[in-house]
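I keep forgetting this: the sequence line spells out the residues, with the fold written below as integer tokens. I include a record here:
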Amino acid sequence: MLELLQTSEFLQDPETGIWTLKELKRFDYSDGDENENYLLEVLQNAKDKSIYSEELRKSIKDWPSLYHLSRRRSNLLRPFEEILKNKKILEIGCGCGAITRYIGELGAEVYSIEGSFRRAKSARERCKELSNVTIICGSSDKLPEYGEFDVVLLIGVLEYSPKFLGPEGPELLLKSIYRQLKPEGLLILAIENQLGLKYFAGYPEDHAGIPMYGINNSYTEGEFVTFGRKVLEDLLLDAGFDTLEQYIPLPDYKLPVSIVTPLGWQKYPDEMCSLALESVKEDAQRSPYSFLSLENAYIPVWKNGLAQDLANSFLFSCYKGEKSEFSNILAYYFSDARKIDYLKRLEFLEDEGVVIKAYHGNSSSIEEFIQGESYFKKLLNILNRPGWSIEEIVSWTKVWYDALLKELGLSENITLTAAVESKYWDATPFNAILDEKGDLCFFDLEWTGLKQIDLGLVLWHGLFISFIRVTDVSSPVQGQSLNVLEIIYRIMLYLGFDLSKESLLEYEKRDRQIISDLSGIDEPEEHILYVKNRCLRERILPEQAEQKLLQKEQELRQKEEELRQKEEELKAVYSSNSWKVTEPVRHIIKIIKK
């Protein structure tokens, strides 16, 4: 491989070690000078550049740094970890090296191509001590074919091929990849879905940043383009691939927290649907507005067998030949927003039904999979019905509260200061299942070493975390507050606890400290202001927007009339005899005040 580079039109940059074309052409793709310079500086100064580097994690400050530094990027390839180990891999479009670092740590012989020299420098810096990683700067169409690879990675790249390779770019690129794979080789491809559900909800198209851009097929020749499922599959089959398998990364391929396998979405859609709706809150590019509740919309989408067609992103494994091995894994779930010691991975397995295998570090255990409905779904249903009220939320809370007291062995006359076992800090509504008997069962109660946990803290944590997981809601009954603090305050009063909002904020401070201790990330000082002002986001449909505009116009006219009346009253005072007679007195008072 290196001999091919040396005998072609490439030179190795002595300062960086990057292989570049002798005449490197301009590559028009960037996250912006400021963002990319910051990223390069962070990588150059970091002592630990590994996937689980706390140093890099604490340097994340915005979307570009999150995308390039987050350990979550590597989750996309974890279903293929055993396949990737010690293999010869070609990565096309490595960006700043987030994925490159991961496959390099697996011991693979990695050749990563990047068109931008500055981004290639960041990738080289990210993999600085990994001698098994070679970074090449150049356009893929200018590179010699390096022989055969076990695996080719095409992550977030195919959509740009028309821009850099011409109108036939997708076809040319896929056929070139096919030629460079060994007879049993594998292409792993990830790309946004032109028809992803979140784009129907009004989320901006990822490349144009404009809502409905892909849905309306607004792409023009010579720019990026995404595809729906059938078109993409046809492109892959036409390129020569024999076996295609589609995985569903959630919420999308960029920063997935869950990945559902083909077996999972084909055979267990009802069970896997919960992973989809719980992933919505994890989308780091959430839209400030939405035409629908993504969480609730996922339920009929999965029930009707449309999950694979309306996935926000595609993750395909494309085999040159037949796939021989079989896996009973249905899905992966990653709890990665934690300190390294607390990282957790779940594998959902088919084994006479569904079982869960949990991995903590080097140890693993089998956990029960409870058949039933997530209790969090009940809250979603309430908040997405037009005209919902606090009374409905209280009824929902009461079921959870009663089940919690029963689990704790406490009576209804208990006080908020009652000490409880620390594992129940996580007995939240989204860690509760309504089983087939109608009983509420708690699961995933993993935090056994926490200190000073009482009932009040458990109630605050369960309610606040539940409400902020809801991305948006329907319009409530008139007069109903959307302020989360106010809603929880009212719930506590209904449950019989007489406390102030300031007391609730004290619970939040304690809760936030626990979360910071577990995650290793400190909240900014202004977090308490965020809690005070956090409101459920009301979803305004066009007809509702018109009604609200008319209502505001009516209120404005009413205020204008009140102002006119006040001005008339003031004018009458100024013209009155008493005002004129008392003018000397007012003049004397002004002099005295001076």
Q: What stands out?
A: The mean pLDDT is 90. The radius of gyration is 29 Å.
